[in-house]
Amino acid sequence: MFQRPSEPDINTDYLIIGAGVAGINLAIKLSSIGKEVWLLGSPYESQLAKAGVLQNTNLPEGTVGLKYIEEQIKLAKEKGVKHKSSLVEKISIGDSFLVETRRQKFYPKYIIIASGAKQKRMNFPGEVDFFHKGISDCSICDFPLYGDRIVGVLGNHEYTSRAANFLIDKTRGVHLFWYKNNDKPELDDRIELYHIDSIEAIGGDTISSVRVNTSDGIREVELEGLFVEGKPYPSSEFLEGVVELDDAYVVIDDDFRTSISNIYALGDVTGKTSNYTEVMDAVDRLFLKLITKK
Ligand SMILES: Cc1cc2nc3c(=O)[nH]c(=O)nc-3n(C[C@H](O)[C@H](O)[C@H](O)COP(=O)(O)OP(=O)(O)OC[C@H]3O[C@@H](n4cnc5c(N)ncnc54)[C@H](O)[C@@H]3O)c2cc1C
């Protein structure tokens, strides 16, 4: 099979891992004061890109996450940030840092981890078999495929109920499977709510129903799509054995320092933020720390 050749090694001052709201905005700030910055990661994989219309931010009302992220990455490049969508696979720590993507090696002086969080598999029967065959983990990306269908939404987080409320006007009907959570989410009246302890996806080539265990017993509910929308989980697999993690979150001190000198972390991968406003506050504070660092 044809393999694309490796790309030249890169030496840089700052390497920011993650092109979400944290990574992009910190890159813009550092670059604006003349620092040499490389930014790795796909803006389209960031949480904000999948969030739809943003809520509770100081951005203009009606701002769509994807549009905002596209504008910010464009601004970053205008400010001189070098960007690649590649994923970091490995970090080695010797006399200097070596950060590797599949085809390139980077030798940064400082590493900033901003790899955020992503949807995690919920490990129920049928989840893997029907993934992309009726099961999706992004309602905002995939809802156009389900316009004339009855769908389910599965999860136990605020984002789960938001996804259900979003889908009720885009699909023929929504069942919300509220997973191992006794609270009552705020829902549009048209959504049918099930408190469930377990779920199994059933079908042939594609999903056709789910079997759920509720307090009223086992029920089978027909549907043609199931959106799995739980709490996002930190993207830190590539950091195992590199910096200290706690339940997969990167451990940082009040100055955003990780357990390794000159490696910093911010944003949702640290578990210290979970929305735009908190991330932007962390960006401002880390930027100040970096530029006043002796
Ligand atoms: C469905 C949904 C709706 C939301 N709605 C709102 C809202 O309305 N208002 C609000 O304030 N907040 C909202 N949030 C929360 C908000 O989006 C997040 O708090 C914020 O975007 C986190 O930003 P981040 O940069 O830390 O991480 P992320 O957005 O997760 O970005 C992480 C980046 O790191 C990259 N990455 C991961 N691993 C690697 C690797 N190995 N190498 C290179 N790059 C890597 C990813 O591709 C991505 O580019 C929402 C979140 C979700 C999931």
Please write out the topology.
Layout: E1 10-17, H1 21-32, E2 37-40, H2 65-78, E3 82-84, E4 90-93, E5 97-100, E6 105-113, E7 117-118, E8 135-136, H3 139-142, E9 150-155, H4 158-167, E10 173-179, E11 192-203, E12 207-214, E13 217-222, E14 225-228, E15 233-234, E16 245-246, E17 249-250, E18 263-265, H5 276-291
Parallel strand pairs: 1-2, 1-6, 2-3, 6-18, 8-14, 9-10, 9-14, 10-11
Antiparallel strand pairs: 4-5, 5-6, 7-15, 11-12, 12-13, 16-17
Helix pairs in contact: 1-2, 1-5
The structure holds flavin-adenine dinucleotide (FAD).
Residues 17-23, 40-43, 45-48, 50-51, 54-57, 87-88, 114-117, 159, 232, 235, 238, 267-268, 273-277, 279 line the site of flavin-adenine dinucleotide.
Q: What are the salient characteristics of this protein?
A:
single chain, 294 residues, alpha/beta, FAD/NAD(P)-binding domain, 2 domains, seven-stranded mixed beta sheet, 18 strands, 19% helix, binds flavin-adenine dinucleotide
